[in-house]
Amino acid sequence: MNPDHIELIGSAAALLTTGSFIPQAWLTFRTRDVSGISLGMYSAFTVGVALWLAYGLALGSWPMTVANAITLSLALGILWMKLRFRR
């Protein structure tokens, strides 16, 4: 497969997965309702995204790096709210 096509696939995947995360993050930030979020699952998710970011940096893949940097920022914000507004 052509390297340009591979980069295009990675860019599309990054755009879709990160973009799909934004509405839920926005809703959580707006309402501060974290009652439906599992602390264990979200902690594991956040660590996983951090590892994907490290992997993207190691590979020099800008789509993976940018997407996971954005997702990690949103995930850390939600995780912080889960810990702060826990009921």
Structure, briefly:
With 87 residues, the chain is mainly α. It is built from three helices and no strands.
Descriptive account of the structure:
Helices cover 84% and strands 0% of the residues. The longest helix is centred in the first third of the chain and has 29 residues, at 3-31. The protein has one domain (3-84): Monooxygenase. Helix 1 packs parallel to helix 3 (62-84) and helix 2 (39-59) runs antiparallel to helix 3 (62-84). The mean pLDDT is 92. The N and C termini lie far apart (51 Å). The radius of gyration is 15 Å and the shape is elongated. With 87 residues, it is an all-alpha fold.
List the helices and strands and how they pair.
Elements: H1 3-31, H2 39-59, H3 62-84
Helix pairs in contact: 1-3, 2-3
List descriptors:
87 residues, mainly alpha, Monooxygenase, 3 helices, 84% helix
Structural class: mainly alpha
What's the pLDDT, averaged over the residues?
92
Task: Tell how many strands the DSSP assignment holds.
Answer: 0
Give a short account of the largest sheet.
none
Radius of gyration: 15 Å
Uncertain segments: none
Distance between the termini: 51 Å
Q: What is the top-level CATH class?
A: Mainly Alpha
- Give the SSE string: HHH
CATH topology: Monooxygenase
| Overall spatial form | elongated
Helix content: over 70%
Estimated share of beta-strand residues = under 5%
CATH architecture: Up-down Bundle
Number of helices: 3
Whole-number count of domains: 1
